[in-house]
Amino acid sequence: MAADPFPVVLALERIAPVxxxxxxxxxxxxxxxxxxxxxxxxVACMISIRTREEVTLRLSRGLFATAPTPAAVAAMPIERxxxxxxxxxxxxxxxxxxxxxxxxxxxxxDGVLPCDGATLQxxxxxxxxxxxxxxxxxxxIPAVSVDVHVDRVVHRWGAVAATTPxxxxxxxxxxxxxERWIDINRLLMPFGRxxxxxxxxxxxxxxxxxxCPRIGVTxxx
Length: 221
Ligand code: SF4
Known about the structure:
Elements: H1 8-19, H2 26-32, H3 38-48, H4 53-66, H5 70-75, H6 78-84, H7 91-109, H8 117-121, H9 128-139, H10 148-156, H11 165-175, H12 181-194
Helix pairs in contact: 1-12, 2-3, 2-4, 3-4, 3-7, 3-9, 6-7, 10-12
The structure holds iron/sulfur cluster.
């Protein structure tokens, strides 16, 4: 007999009060601070790729203080943008990609990027993770965004058996109701960062300990 599917929604409900004690994911924090346009969210997510949360927050705030509109970013020399982004990973590549998006926003979209996933993913450097996070946070459109933390957690639960984040995204879209799609990243990113950590997850105090098969976990706290 097949095992019961992992109750993802129940897990999200238990995890919500636990992660409230930890910092919000950078994109949600930036939205709270007013950086909630499609352009700002997309750019901040690109900065966040393979970059620590604290650095993402600092560089995003710094960039938007220096250049508060897509037109202002488009007007920056790329070398200046590289300097602003120097502490992120791949600053030259990200500077070029972000500059291209700023120029396109001004020239093709009259300064306002649309809430449209296909448009966002048409830009170099933008994949489903950042496009979907932007749709969710900036536009309030249900979308699943899978980062390394989300991917690790749902695999430990046995909720998903996928080999790429894109497959994980599709699998989660099938098993989680649309009204909880934005919550997947909002809740599971900090949960994976602070509780279900890559090394030595905190299973003994975990709110879903009784539900979790701990797939692949060999040592825990
Ligand atoms: S019980 Fe352990 S492996 Fe399972 S979700 Fe909690 S911390 Fe992660």
